[in-house]
Each structure stands twice: as structure tokens, then as C-alpha cells.
Please model this.
Amino acid sequence: MLRQRLVAALAPRRVAHAHCDVPCGVYDPAPAQIAARTVSRMVELLNGITGMELEDRNKMVRCTAVKEQHAELVKREVQVIWSDYFKPEHLEKYPELHDLSWRVLKQASKCKQSVDAEAAAELERLVGRFAEIFWASKGAPAHLMTPSAEGAPKNVISWEVRAS
Amino acid sequence: MGRIGASSTPVAPPRSFASGVRVGLVLGGLALAAAPGIRRAGRSWRNRVAVEGGSMSPAVLDGEWLLVDPDAFRDRGPREGELVLVADPGRPDRLLVKRVAAIAADGLLDLRGDAPEASTDSRDFGPVPPSQVLGRPWARYWPPRRIGRVR
Model:
């Protein structure tokens, strides 16, 4: 009681922020990883289309459209984290950051142009590495940083189940 | 206290006038010397702040309570390396604690956190005019084991 009152009397009335801005706390590479995974999946579905029936063509157009959108999403998400979250101190610690970001953006474009499983896998790999650096910069535990064996980030598995 | 009536037997021998003056001078001098410090403590106490966030680590940690002298920069500007309390340029109702990393030729202050990886500072909101500075955090009074000056 007395202690509480004492603390209340001593406590400051105002807060001084020695902070990192609010958005800093909500950056997350997961959407980019999910988008890259989606691109991979769309390439897989597109490669599975054999016929030229109306249904097939419909599916082809839909998958292509989703592939295009999600490749764009990868670019957008990675670019925002790259330009807004990362600071010069991170670059010093992870010198590959600029080149890696650049390669992610390029690879996403390549995935738009092609229906190439290799290209899509490479996009996932690059985004995975980008996410690794992101989590490492936050000092996150290793299990958050490493994508699972298939190259898909672990936190995407539930999404994959829903989508298939 | 019933001392006035009971003082028929003096405890100390009577002082000479000169020694009395000397004691008075010393006490007065002490009071004069201490007065600015006491006044500063008083106005700083009215401007105490709780620090939130770790961008000033290790100099100032999340949750620590600081005394801020609002008059520290009345007669002089902030110097490089000093802590300052400023109004957040993005949200003037909010206070920030940062360090003056550099002072530009035009007098604008380049503010940084001590932990640059986790700090929103001049790199984000640009240099800050000295008029935005509200005071100098100079002492920490909580937690008890970290009581003392901050720099």
C-alpha cells in the first residue's frame, strides 16, 4: 500500500519515447513469402494444364492472373521492408541486403514472364533469405528464420492446406 | 519545543562576534552555491519523464524515470553528444529522448538514438530546430540501483 502510494507519487506524469516508430514493429516478411509460395503453386498448376477446353483456358487465365498479382505483391512487400524497415546499420551487418533485394525484385519479374518452376523456386529461395535477414536483424529465434525443407516458410503451411 | 525557556544553561560556550560572522558567511556561501542546484532539482522534478522504448540503450533503458531540466538550454544551445528531450516532429504532442549526434552549420540538430538499429530519429524525420528542444534529461531517479547522472 505505502509502497504503491510512494511509487505513484514518484512516477512521472509524462512519457518520453526512446522508440522505434510503431510501423517498425509491424513489418513482416511473411506476406512476401506467402506471395512467393503462391507464384510457385500457380506455376505448378499452369504446368498441369494439358487440354484446351474452355475450363482449361479459364483455369489458365485465372492462374496466370494470380501469378502476376502475387509476383507483384512480392515486389511490393519486399520493397517496403527494404526501404522503410532496414537501416544503414543493418546493411553494415548484412552487406548482401541491397543486392538481394534487387535480385528478389528482378526474379519476381522473371516469374511474371515465364511459367518456370525453377524461376519460381529461386524466387522463394531469395525471399526466404530476405526473411532470414529480417528476422536475424530483430534477433528472432532461429526457428522463425529458417524456411522448412521444401523451401516453403513454415508459417505458410496452413495457407497451403486451405488453398489445395 | 520547550527549548526557549530551558536555555538558562548554554550548551556551547558563547561565540565571539567574528566567529559568528565566519559561520554565517560559510553557511550563506553554501546556501548560495547549493541554490542553483536545488532550484534545478525542483524544476526538473516538475518535468520528470518515464522513458518508453529501447532506442537509447544502454545510456537510458526502457522504463527508467528521468529528471529533465527545462532551462538547461536557455542560455546556450544543445551540444554534440548531449541528451535532449524534444517534441516529436511527426506528432508534437509526443515527447522523444534522443542524443544530439551533430549540429549542422545552420544550427539544426541531427538527432540519433544510441541503439540506431531500433531508433526512429533524424534519419526518419530529418534535422530538428533547437527551438523544438524542451529540456535536458540529466539525472535518473528510478530504478534505485541506477540512480545518478545520465549522459
Strands of chain A lie at 14-17. The longest helix of chain A spans residues 54-85. The two ends of chain A are 59 Å apart (CA to CA). Residues 145-164 of chain A have pLDDT under 50 and may be disordered.
